[in-house]
């Protein structure tokens, strides 16, 4: 397969080059804002300024750029037949709508986290939330990342929260509690709580806690290397070959049955 990499000069983009080649696929090229950012990349990898240009050269694009690029990327890929593996989080309502519309024309795999371990944590969190009554088991999600991270809670933490909400049959926005400070009053029944820590160069740590008056169950995931995200994204890109158009998740890539 010919795999393009949007944002090829970023930290994950550079890892993606190695993982694509390790998988026996071809790096068809990548997008970059300025040539100066491409220092250190293999000289034989074509560089492009736009998604449209990149799409002309590949079968699938792996995209770990920014939410602000989603609308333009969606418009660029519609009608090309090029699959889109998107790892961008924090999408607005418009960006989500454009992503969904694009999936009516091309194969799209969207995930907040391409780690197989995180995907399984989300699945288990949904199963546990379905089995443990919300009025007896308080759900809290704790995450920690490196000091440079600009968003909180992380996209992965929110995705886990969405899984808990699905298991409970509620809308996350209606029960989410984040950043408690001061006299907040007692914990609201059925709330899904979030806490975000930042420090050092931690790649990503996530804990999901279900706590009752009598016991506590914790699901934990620790990422030691960003390479796990690149490896998972390449796995997803290879999986798109021959797939029908539509919107898929890492659960589909891993072959997990629907709940």
UniProtKB/TrEMBL annotation:
Segments forming domain Dihydrodipicolinate reductase C-terminal: 117-254
Enzyme class: oxidoreductase
Keywords: Amino-acid biosynthesis, Cytoplasm, Diaminopimelate biosynthesis, Lysine biosynthesis, NAD, NADP, Oxidoreductase
Residue ranges of every copy of the Dihydrodipicolinate reductase N-terminal domain listed in the record: 1-114
Positions with a binding annotation for (S)-2,3,4,5-tetrahydrodipicolinate: 146, 155-156
Active site positions, chain numbering: 145, 149
EC annotation from Swiss-Prot or TrEMBL: 1.17.1.8
Signal peptide extent: none
InterPro entries (alphabetical): DapB_C, DapB_N, DapB_N_CS, DHDPR_bac, NAD(P)-bd_dom_sf
Top-rank lineage group of the source organism: Bacteria
GO molecular function: 4-hydroxy-tetrahydrodipicolinate reductase
Catalytic activity: (S)-2,3,4,5-tetrahydrodipicolinate + NADP(+) + H2O = (2S,4S)-4-hydroxy-2,3,4,5-tetrahydrodipicolinate + NADPH + H(+); (S)-2,3,4,5-tetrahydrodipicolinate + NAD(+) + H2O = (2S,4S)-4-hydroxy-2,3,4,5-tetrahydrodipicolinate + NADH + H(+)
Pfam families membership: DapB_C (PF05173), DapB_N (PF01113)
Binding site for NAD(+): 7-12, 87-89, 111-114
Location relative to the cell: Cytoplasm
Pathway listed: Amino-acid biosynthesis; L-lysine biosynthesis via DAP pathway; (S)-tetrahydrodipicolinate from L-aspartate: step 4/4
Oligomer and partners: Homotetramer.
Family (UniProt): Belongs to the DapB family.
UniProt function note: Catalyzes the conversion of 4-hydroxy-tetrahydrodipicolinate (HTPA) to tetrahydrodipicolinate.
PANTHER family, per database record: 4-HYDROXY-TETRAHYDRODIPICOLINATE REDUCTASE 1, CHLOROPLASTIC-RELATED, DIHYDRODIPICOLINATE REDUCTASE
Alphabetical list of NCBIfam families matching this protein: dapB
Protein name stated in the entry: 4-hydroxy-tetrahydrodipicolinate reductase
Record gene name: dapB
